[in-house]
Amino acid sequence: MEQFGLWVAAFLTLGIYSFLYRDNPWYKLSEAIFVGVSAGYWVVVLFWDNFYSKFWLGHSEDPWLWVGAVLGFLMLLRLVPKIGWISRWPLAFIVGATAGLWMMNYFASNIMAQVQNTVMPLFGSDFSASFTAIVSNLVIVVGTFAGLVYFFFSKAHTGAFGATARVGIWFIMITFGASFGYTVMSRMSLLIGRIDFLLSDWLGLIQ
Amino acid sequence: MKVKWGEVVTMALLAALAGWAYLGKIYGWHHGFVFPSWLSAVVLILAALSLGWILFLTIGGKMIERRIVFLYVGVAISLPLFMSIKQEIPVSAEVQTVYDELVRLPVGSKVLISFDYDPASAPELQPQAEAFIAECFARDLKVIIMGLWPQGPQLANQAVERVLQRDDFKGNNIQYGVDWVNLGFQTGNEFVIQRMGTSFQSMFKTDYSGTAYEDLPLVRNVKNFDAIDYSMNLSSGFPGTVEWVQVAVDRYGLRMGAGNTAVQAPTVYPYLGNQLKGLMGGMSGAAEFEQVSSRPDKATRFMLSQSLAHVIVMAFIIIGNVAFFRSGRKSALKG
Predict the structure, then answer these.
(1) Count of the separate structural domains present in chain A
(2) Is residue A167 part of a domain?
(3) CA dist., res. A161 & res. A169, Å (int)
(4) Which of A8, A27, B64, B283 has the fewest C-beta atoms under 10 angstroms from its C-beta?
(5) Looking at domain B93-296, which CATH architecture does it have?
(6) What is the pTM of this model?
(7) For residue A164, is it left (φ>0), alpha (ψ between -120 and 50) or beta?
(8) Residue B302 burial (10 A CB sphere; 0-12, 13-18, 19+)
(9) Which B residues 35-94 touch A at CB under 8 Å?
């Protein structure tokens, strides 16, 4: 059975990569299987982990779960065109609750804590920072300030202000470059994983 | 429909080769191959020369087709897997911090690991998980595993199983329920983290295999994050490190490091320092952790492929730019 699984995995992996040569029925079959299995998997997971294990087993202990169940049911009314508008109520509840809950989280973590991370003693709290640490701190402070100036559009980007904005765009471009580099690494890692599976687990060619 | 015999013959040859390799594995005709150093060097030199030739052709106005680029990337990744060349892997400050965090923990400290990824990200995150768990076991730290992604705990079991099969752990009496525990998956994304801030047990009434929470000696007295000495979040998206930082770190003061896919790492970097104690980014992060913990494994082996693939991408960026200017599109863009 394990060997059969290996062959199926290898067949589907090669089918997906065959698209690199050109579109073909093997690729289409592999893609359709992937989409179908993914959708089926999520339906099963959501049914057993959300509906069954939370609501079905827990509603007698916690009556509040009925509120969620009713809201969930109202969401399904979207499928009935005449009363589909009722599905906007649970949607409004989700949007409102999520916005309210996350506003404080984002304000605390992504604004206050990030400002705190940026406002730092350049030379260390007791002037003991190493040369590289000082340079690193300077880069963070200058990069953050220049980046913010670039996104300040209420004043024309001319003169000293414009020069600072240009420094900001350089920082932003370097950030994009780093992100691209990381993305390449990520995609290559996935490819390495599949090729290692084919050459090692399937064919046993690698020692 | 016209039959393309060239393609049919190529497919048949590749299938025959795969069949031979597979049967060879089953019947022991071969036990895998390793290139000697000289052959590895020759392969690298040939690859460099052929890239130079493509650049030369491009300058001469002859463009290559895109499949050649795919072929080069495939070869750049495949061949190094056979090579015996060792690559230097310097350890970054972020990964060193993760290691230092484990070093400072006394024996018996509790480490929480959240597996928030699925098999699609396993090539990057599984080596991180294995290296981290191995270090925890080697330092006699107690490991509590959970997952906000359905397949996370399953991948965690695979990682632990692989670690325990290693020679350096075979003699150790690492027991489930005492030295490590897998609490399984819990649906609810960031709200699970929020509830764990007050009660772990409210979210995990049983472990992955159905044992009641209070019957697990390791977590019986773990009420909330106060009992956790260090936490590692292995994540490839939502819910993941960002949510853990926002809820567990900033609200409940959990001391946490992260292991992310390379795509996600740049979004997490700003949290390093006060909010995040250490970060492993992608496969290179895993390889660095393997180096710093002196247990080179899969990620270290894969880094040569990674490096060569990056060189190929850089070479083709140069070749692509040469082709761009050579084809006169720059003047066309200027009007």
Answers:
(1) 1
(2) yes
(3) 12
(4) A8
(5) 3-Layer(aba) Sandwich (3.40)
(6) 0.91
(7) alpha
(8) buried
(9) 67, 70, 73-74, 77-78, 81-82
C-alpha to C-alpha distance for A49 and B192, rounded to whole angstroms: 13
Could you read off the pLDDT of B145-182 as tens digits, one per residue?
999 999 999 999 999 999 999 988 888 889 999 999 99
The domain of A179 spans 129-207
On whether the CB atoms of residues A21 and B67 are closer than 8 A, the answer is: yes
In a domain, A190, yes or no: yes
| β-pairing verdict for B256-260 and B110-116 | unpaired
Asked whether residue A158 is assigned to any structural domain, the reply reads yes
Q: Residue A37 falls within a domain, yes or no? A: no
Rounded Cα distance between B231 and B98, Å, is 10
Q: Does B214 touch chain A (CB under 8 A)?
A: no
| Residue A84 distance to chain B (closest CA, Å) | 26
Mean pLDDT over the full length of chain B: 93
> What strands lie across the sheet with B110-116, from one edge to the other?
B180-185, B142-147, B110-116, B230-235, B256-260, B279-281
Residues of B in contact with A191 (CB under 8 A): 73-74, 77, 309
Over residues B37-93, the pLDDT tens digits come to 899 999 999 999 999 999 999 999 888 889 999 999 999 999 999 998 888 999 999
Distance from CA of A119 to the nearest CA of B (A): 12
pLDDT value, residue A122? 83
Contact: B67, A202; criterion CB under 8 Å: no
Cβ atoms of A177 and B313 within 8 Å: the answer is no
* Alpha-carbon distance A116 to nearest alpha carbon in chain B (angstroms): 9
Other Cβ atoms closer than 10 A to A99: 9
Asked if A114 lies within 8 A of B70 by C-beta distance, the reply is: no
